[in-house]
Specification:
The chain is 44% helix and 15% strand. The chain has 15 helices and eleven strands.
Length: 324
């Protein structure tokens, strides 16, 4: 059985499941695997500036699947050349996240047939995305791993869905199994964007040990902070904090962000440890749904399992109604 939503109809998908364009994780192999399995896989173009990497991964996903796939970027960081590079490969969808989407949205709509997806973290961003002509919105709750805003998904998703109708809205943040997908559909979403669960997949481009760390982790061990962005000198806008697993570096510098900004030695120590992929220092992006990750699997298996779990959860709800 397949679930039919506005998202699946727009892109011809079997399942309303989306791999987000996670920078450093979602390469061509992972995106292709998700798309072949019936979801929408997206390559993480991140902040751009790596054309050789981007071309390699986009060529890979295009070669490995004939089904719809997409690519995504950080609105605040990319340049026009990054978007131009991506559009050459004719993605079915382009996702813009964090920052003003308008300049890039205009180019997507003018120079391609790609579906324009814009991720938002509050209602003001949702209005701006609609004004930019977004075909689909992603309402991202603060439960999400990586960067995000301050609103929880449970109240944010229906509020954005009401505001955006008839534009479809996808739910993101803390969704790691089919029960979460079913809940998203119940909230009025047309699908779910699932990141952390796909980080713990065989095709994810994560550093050694990250998948195992996610399997061991609990949602209680995640935290939103600016510490690691400051240490990395990542340049992220202040309004977006990052949810990661707690580690020793974060513990040492928590509530000392201003001091860290001016401590060159501490930043040098970070860079040295990051070069060794020391997981007690570098960010391991993880959402609050990490409790539900108990193994490492191939992405196609994850898509099938998520779809089956979603249908089972919806069937349980239907039986509750029928029991009256």
């Amino acid at each position: 059985m397949t679930l039919t939503t506005a998202l699946t109809e727009l892109l011809g998908l079997e399942h309303p499941l989306v791999l987000p364009p996670m920078g450093g994780t979602a390469g061509g192999a992972l995106a292709a695997a998700v798309s072949r399995a019936g979801g929408l896989g997206m390559v993480g173009g991140g902040r751009g500036g790596a054309p050789d990497w981007l071309r390699r991964e986009l060529a890979l996903v295009r070669a490995e699947t004939s089904r719809p796939w997409g690519v995504g970027f950080l609105s605040w960081a990319i340049g026009p050349e990054d978007l131009a590079c991506a559009l050459e490969y004719e993605p079915a969808a382009v996702m813009l996240s964090f920052g003003d989407p308008v300049p890039h949205a205009e180019r997507v709509r003018r120079e391609s047939d790609a579906l324009l997806i814009v991720q938002v973290t509050d209602l003001a961003e949702a209005r701006r995305a609609l004004d930019a002509g977004a075909d689909v919105l992603v309402a991202q709750g603060t439960e999400a791993g990586g960067h995000g805003g301050r609103r929880a998904a449970l109240p944010l998703v229906p509020a954005v869905a009401d505001l955006a109708a008839p534009v479809p809205v996808l739910a993101a943040g803390g969704i790691a199994d089919g029960r979460g997908v079913a809940a998203a559909l119940a909230l009025g979403a047309a699908g779910a964007v699932i990141g952390t669960r796909f980080q713990a997949s065989c095709e994810a481009l994560t550093a050694p040990g990250v998948g195992a760390a996610l399997v061991r982790a609990s949602g209680d061990e995640t935290e939103r902070s600016r510490v690691l962005d400051i240490a990395r000198e990542a340049g992220w806008p202040e309004r977006y904090t990052a949810r990661t697993l707690r580690n020793g570096y974060l513990d040492r510098w928590r509530a000392r962000e201003d001091e860290l900004r001016g401590d060159a030695a501490a930043k040098a120590a970070y860079r040295e440890a990051a070069g060794r992929h020391d997981l007690d220092v570098v960010p391991v992006w993880a959402g609050e749904g990490v409790d539900l990750i108990t193994d490492l699997r191939a992405a196609a298996e994850l898509v099938s399992a998520l779809a089956a779990e979603t249908e089972a959860a919806l069937d349980r709800l239907a039986r509750l109604r029928g029991a009256r």
